[in-house]
Amino acid sequence: MSKEFTERKADYPIDDIYINRWSPRAFSDKKVEKETLFSVFEAARWAPSAANKQPWRFVYAMNEEDRDTFLTFINDGNTSWCKKAPVLIAIVANKRWSEDSNDINPTHAFDTGAAWGFLALEANRKGLVTHAMGGFNREKAKEVLQIPDGHEVFAMVALGYHGDTESLPESLQQREKKSGRHTIDTFIHEGLYS
Ligand SMILES: Cc1cc2nc3c(=O)[nH]c(=O)nc-3n(C[C@H](O)[C@H](O)[C@H](O)COP(=O)(O)O)c2cc1C
Fold it and tell me: Which residues lie closer than 8 Å to 83 by C-beta, 6 or more apart?
């Protein structure tokens, strides 16, 4: 077993889309049409979820005022590049099994992660790039975006068209590279885990 990162190439045959999706930080000035953005949400809509509860929620910002609001709770290290992204999305889940009970849906995070994965792949198909961010103030995001109780904010996503690496601050230019992955033998287990 090797924990070495492999180059960004599949060891077993898969569709190119999985390799082509990556998370750059450089965004171009090109705006994203609402229709295009809604196609990306449409892909998320078709993710599987426990009991088809569809716990994912997305709050998006695409006008200047809303984008500025999002930037108030995203960490400085991320705002330095994501302020150029034409769309910012908060990935939220309804933690409750139903709107009128306090029972927790144990797979709200799992299902919402699947929806984000679908969203990211469809964005890639549409020629867009996405970059998820965990670096933001969760409490402030909940407050500012008026996220109701019983919901959790998992990540912010910057979405737009890929820009030139040179448009990034110098420190980020070196980081604008595609990453590799561990080999599958490091995370699959036949029969038992150990
Ligand atoms: C939940 C989540 C949180 C992340 N948080 C950040 C972040 O705060 N800042 C950042 O620059 N990248 C962030 N990333 C991007 C990851 O570093 C990136 O997805 C990972 O290195 C794999 O690279 P790739 O997406 O280009 O394949 C985050 C990704 C995910 C899924």
Answer: 67, 71
